[in-house]
Amino acid sequence: YTQAKSLVFSKFGEPSDVLHVHRHSISPTLPDGAVLLRALAVPVNPSDVNTIQGTYGVKPRFSPLLGTPEPAAIPGNEGCFEVVSVGPGVKTLRRGDWAIPASTGFGTFRTHAVAEHADRTLYRIGGDRGTAGLTPTQVATVSVNPCSAYRMLRDYVDLISASVSAFSQDPTTPGGAWFLQNGANSGVGRAAIQLGALWGLRSINIIRERPTPEETESLKSELLSLGATVVLTESEFLDRAFSARLKEEFTRGGKDPVLLGLNCVGGKSASAVVKALSPRGTMVTYGGMSRQSFPFPTGPQIFKRLRFEGFWLSEWSKENPAEKRKTIDEIVELMREGKFKAAPVQDVEWSWETEEKTLRQAVQGTLDGFRSGKGLFVF
Ligand code: NDP
């Protein structure tokens, strides 16, 4: 029997109040089509906290089957697992492979899992090249943030053609369309910067000021080195002078349009994204980190003919399973080739002895700002 430990919750609330450790054992006899997994690395994403709080778009089902005193759910949507053993009838996975959940809601905050219908519910990582050159951290964080950034940059506006066509009209000046994003230091933001740079796109990136000017400058340089074209603080972005700067410094009087805005933050920052969009621009909202909503201003909507979209990876993945797989495979290969860096993480060691309090705190801390990286359970 394998001894396993999970984080579980039986009611919605703050992670530090409602999360508990549940210990149980797993039988060595696996059902048809199932595999036994061992966790290697599991990130804590903002949506995991929202799910535990009960404020996320989909509510988990509290199941009586986990062997907990009350029906419970295991939080966590992504993670890198190693296949420990394989039940009869499994075709795509072998002992020693690395796998990630194929869709959200898997419940990844646990040391071990039995995944039923493994050929359908898991992706084997790495294709013919296996896991050589990959780390559990990269694999654990590929399916949510980089995948979201990839789809948002590609599925709403054809920025690549827009960049090329603007450039070819005036080949003497490097130019072309821009995308602009707030929350640029988030996992999604950093992924968008890097993918954008790989695809030849120019980006204006908005970050929150750090506690000191030196830290702000250092973050700016870090994002520039990832491939950002311009990095500005929220106060530079919200300043009255920004409109003129956008026109004169960045867009050649509007010739290089800002066609896509990615909104991670909401509130005033989102309103400023709307203002910065060029005619026929599209704003895609995917997060609300400030917990503030923003108005859809009537004038710009009509006179600039703007488009407002919402992106939700979970639904997109259900509708496009084959594309999801391709997107992940492509990003994994970029990681392996050293062309794509995983976002920084703060490792939280999860061993048999780790106290419940430590694990709970790691989840609770996710929505604190100015962190050096998101929490990552390492096993
Ligand atoms: P990370 O944990 O990597 O980063 C969180 C970011 O939010 C940090 O950059 C932080 O800024 C910023 N932040 C926190 N509080 C505030 C605030 N009050 N105002 C402005 N910025 C703030 O996040 P992820 O990349 O994993 O996720 C970012 C957002 O995207 C979340 O809302 C998440 O739910 C959403 N998301 C949505 C998806 C979808 O399908 N719709 C898919 C993936 C993510 P700082 O760097 O300054 O600390």
UniProtKB/TrEMBL annotation:
Its EC number is 1.3.1.104. This is enoyl-[acyl-carrier-protein] reductase. Residues 13-377 form the Enoyl reductase (ER) domain. The lineage of its organism: Eukaryota, Fungi, Dikarya, Ascomycota, Pezizomycotina. Belongs to the zinc-containing alcohol dehydrogenase family. Quinone oxidoreductase subfamily. It catalyses: a 2,3-saturated acyl-[ACP] + NADP(+) = a (2E)-enoyl-[ACP] + NADPH + H(+). Keywords: Fatty acid biosynthesis, Fatty acid metabolism, Lipid biosynthesis, Lipid metabolism, Mitochondrion, NADP, Oxidoreductase, Transit peptide. It comes from Immersiella caudata. One of its GO terms (biological process) is fatty acid biosynthetic process. It is found in: Mitochondrion. It comes from the Eukaryota. GO terms for molecular function: enoyl-[acyl-carrier-protein] reductase (NADPH) activity. Its main location: mitochondrion.
